[in-house]
Amino acid sequence: MAQNLVLSLGAQRNEDYGVETWKLKDKQSGDALDITGWTFELHIATAPGAIPSLIVNSTANANGSYVAVSEGANGCFDIFIEAADIAALPGRDIDICNLAYNLLMTDTLGNQHAYVVGPFIVSPGV
User: Fold this and answer.
1) The domain spanning residue 104 has which CATH number?
2) How many CA atoms within 13 Å lie on the side-chain side of 58?
């Protein structure tokens, strides 16, 4: 099992997150991983291991949020979270809310990996 990358993410309650393109590379060679056919799920919860308050996957949800492969052969995928989904996350609108996320990736063999995890910080909008 590969070691998780801990990366802090965040957004304001009144703004979209993304579209942000991420690229996966092989740790040894530095070459892009071919992620063609992979699926992704981004889970945001009140704490690590808690039931997610938001799950975003390869199919855009009712608000249009998604995480999906954009250039599979080049290891690229996009994350977009609509402002309405961010606003609906736990916490009061006037507080900074420290949540947790993990990004689950399922390869073409059905193996699931959570390579990227960390805090998801929601701050009040202006």
Assistant:
1) 2.60.40.10
2) 12
Averages of pLDDT over each 10 residues, the chain, 126 residues = 78 88 90 95 93 93 94 96 93 89 95 91 87
Give the pLDDT confidence of 99-110 residue by residue, as tens digits. 999 999 999 999
| Beta bridge partners of residue 20, listed in sequence order | 79
What sections of the chain are H helices per DSSP?
Answer: 83-87
Query: Structural domain of residue 63, as residue ranges?
Result: 5-123
Beta bridge mates, 116 = 5, 103
Q: How many CB atoms lie within 10 A of CB 54?
A: 20
